[in-house]
Amino acid sequence: MRGFLLAAAAYNILWGVFIGWFPETFFHWVTETVCETPSVITWQGRGVLLMAVIYLTCAIHPGKYWFLILFGSITKIAGAIWFYFAILETEVGKRGAFHLLMNDLIWVPLLLWITYQAYQYKKLKP
Fold it and tell me: Which range marks the domain in which residue 95 is found?
């Protein structure tokens, strides 16, 4: 459980730094266009970095912070929906689909499982 959360934190740090420092590169790659990059992409990178801090906190004590793990899975779902409608504008190419699957949707079942396990642990401990 902790190892996965540490991996999630590391992944989010790398991805957030990439999106934050190279928003144009990220946007052009994922949308497969050369149109102007919206400024919200930089904020997306900052949000990803914030989630890295949350995952790192949860890795320290998953049972105590199980609700933050649940929050992380909810943000992955909401982020995928937002990205699909606001950034990709419902037109998903191969790169956009890859981004949605690898960055958002693949993590959700694992985060929900960890949430369940951490909550069960929390119930056992006074």
Answer: 2-124
Alpha carbons 110 and 115: distance in angstroms, whole number: 9
Phi then psi for 110, rounded to 5 degrees? -70, -40
In the chain, how many domains are there?
Answer: 1
Averaged in consecutive runs of 10 residues, what is the pLDDT profile of the chain (126 residues)?
94 95 93 88 94 96 94 94 87 87 90 95 83
Residue 54 contacts residue 68 (beta carbons within 8 Å)? yes
Instruction: Report angle CA 2, 7, 12 to the nearest 5 degrees.
Output: 125
Task: Give the DSSP per-residue string, 59-108.
Answer: HH-TTTTHHHHHHHHHHHHHHHHHIIIIISTT---HHHHHHIIIIIITHH
Which residue, chain included where needed, has tokens 């049972």? Answer: 63
pLDDT at 112: 96
- Rg of the chain taking only CA atoms, in angstroms: 16
Q: What's the CA gap between 73 and 30, in Å, rounded? A: 22
- Tokens representing 26? 């990220």
